[in-house]
Design brief:
The chain has two domains: 6-52, no CATH class; 66-214, no CATH class. It is built from three helices and 15 strands. The chain has helices spanning 66-76, 110-120, 212-226; strands at 27-30, 37-42, 50-52, 81-86, 89-94, 100-104, 124-129, 138-142, 145-148, 162-166, 169-177, 183-187, 190-193, 196-198, 203-204. The strands form three sheets. Strands 4, 5, 6, 7, 8, 9, 10, 11, 12 and 15 form a ten-stranded mixed sheet that branches. A three-stranded antiparallel sheet has the order 1-2-3, with no helix packed on it. A hairpin with a 5-residue loop joins strand 11 and strand 12 (183-187). Helix 1 runs parallel beside helix 3. It is globular, with a radius of gyration of 19 Å.
Length: 227
């Protein structure tokens, strides 16, 4: 059994990321929650040992953690408006040309997807924080498609573009739900190399997912220095 899954959780306070800290009864801190939250070490006999939020925690999927705020502050540097009220919705990032980014740390429910896509139409792009380790849950099923094991079913409901922010890269993806209920993912193809087409086409992200908190602090300091 793999007892070292801390690399899959960049929201764990770096002080607790050493594998030796992950042990029965141990505690850590989440740096992505809007308020300090204690993480619990899950050390069972079936699943890989890992850190988990308590059941009543409100993590950055419901509040706004460092990753979400860093995206907004980064966009502001390039002329974007953040948290623009557009009744009955509130857009995360609105670019000068009217394009809209909705940043999501957790999967979005089907009703929210439909409402926002109907409201914003072609202006909308979804940005999801895609955590390390999830690529291991994709299985190649041919013709550029990957089956997503243990998926978020709502991911296949998007009609507007979806971008996964994974580590320090951005991946443009297409998702669909098959007739038997499976969620399949296809990545925008990268440029050909000497081995043929690159399956996972990507481009640089504004910052590394695991450095969200540090990036936010840097952007805040730059903003304060400019004021």
């Amino acid at each position: 059994m793999n007892h070292d899954s801390t690399a899959d959780l960049p929201w764990v306070d770096p002080r607790y990321c050493d594998p030796e800290h992950l042990a029965p009864g141990a505690r850590a801190l989440c740096i992505e929650c809007p308020a300090p939250t204690v993480l619990i070490a899950k050390c069972g006999e079936i699943n890989a040992w890992h850190w988990a939020h308590p059941g009543n925690a409100i993590c950055s999927g419901e509040g706004e953690g460092a990753w979400h705020q860093a995206w907004k502050m980064w966009a502001q540097q390039y002329g974007a408006t953040v948290e623009m009220i557009d009744n009955p919705h509130r857009a995360d990032i609105v670019w000068p040309d009217g394009a809209i980014y909705e940043c999501q740390t957790n999967y979005t429910d089907a009703a929210t997807i439909r409402k926002r896509e109907d409201h914003y139409g072609e202006r909308l792009t979804w940005i999801y924080r895609w955590m390390p380790g999830r690529f291991d849950r994709l299985r190649n099923v041919g013709e550029g498609w990957f089956k997503w094991n243990r998926p978020a079913p709502s991911m296949g409901l998007h009609d507007r573009p979806v971008i996964w922010h994974h580590l320090d890269r951005l991946y443009d993806i297409t998702a669909k739900t098959t007739s038997n209920g499976e969620v399949h993912i296809r990545f925008a193809r990268g440029e050909d190399d000497k081995y043929g087409p690159v399956m996972y086409g990507s481009r640089p992200a504004p910052f590394h997912v695991g450095a969200s908190a540090a990036t936010l602090k840097q952007l805040q300091a730059e903003q304060q220095g400019a004021s």
